[in-house]
Fold this protein.
Amino acid sequence: MVSATSSSILNIAHRGARAYAPENTLVAFAKAKTFGCQMFEMDVRLSKEGVVIVHHDEQLTRCTDVESKFPGRSSYAVADFTIAELNRLDAGSWYIEQLTLPNHARQAFLQSLTDAEIAEFISPSERKLYASGSIKIPTLADTLSLAKDLELMVNIELKAQKGTESGLVAAVLKTVQTMRLEDQILISSFEHDLLRQVRRQSTKIATAVLSEMPIKAPLSYLRTLKANAYNLECYRDLKRNGFGDLAGKRYLAHINKVRNAGFGVNIWTCNDPEELKYLLAAGVTGLVSDYPNRVREIMTADVTQVFTL
C-alpha cells in the first residue's frame, strides 16, 4: 500500500469515479478501483444527530430524490436530516437521468462524457443498479470499510457546517483512528482552521490545504499549518493559453516551489486530456479527476509524448 504522503503520482478519483457512477457513493468509490486509482476523494458532513455522512452539497436536492420523499420540508440541508431519513433517499437515479440528456443539458462535469466512454465504462447492469433506488448516501464508516477492503487511500474533504466544525473534526478522526487507517488518509478542507484542529489532535494523519487560487507565500503557510500537501485548482487559463503566458509560468513556478520544498501538490479538477499532459509534466504528485480513465491513459502513454510539451 502506498501511503497518503507518497511521492508517487496519484490518480485520484473525484467524488469517486463520478463521471461513471453516482458521485460520493460506494459504487463510485468501487468504480475508482477499476481505473487503477490509488486514491479517491470524497466530502463529509454531519447529519442532524452528528453521524458523519458522505455528501458534497450543503443541500440534498441535486443528488437525491429528497423533494419527492419529503415534500414541503422547510429545509433540504443535510444537517436538518437524521441518518434514518437520509437512508430513505435514492442517491443514484439522478445520475441515470443525466445520461438521458443531451451533453449540453447535463451537469457541467458530464458534458464532455462521450458515447464511447459510456459504452465502455457503464454496463447495462450498472445502469439498472444506479436507477434501482438502492444507491444510498454512505456514512464515513461504510466508506472507509470499503476503502480498506479495496486497499485504496482516501482524501477526506471536510465540509464546514456553521457551529458544528469541531464536532465534525472529532468524529472524523475518531472513525479513522478506530479503523486504524491513519496511513491511508489525507484530510483536506477549504476551511483551513479545520486543518489546524486536525493537526492539534493528530500528528500522524496527513493534511492538505485546499485552495482555488495560488496562496501567497505558500511554503510558510503550509509549514504554519503543519500540512503535508497542497490541493490546488487547475490553472484557469490553461485551455486558452497553456503555460506559455506570464500567468501560466508563474503558476508552474508556484507548483515547482512547493514541490521542491517537499510538499505534495494535487491539482483539481482535471478532466481535459491536454490539461492532464501539461499538469503531469509540471511535476504534480496527484491529479484529481472525474474521469480517471483519461488520467490513466495519459500516465501510461509514451513518456516522450507526455513530457515533450
Observations:
- The chain has one domain: 10-307.
- The chain has a mean pLDDT of 93.
- The radius of gyration is 19 Å.
- Residues 238 and 244 are 9 Å apart (CA to CA).
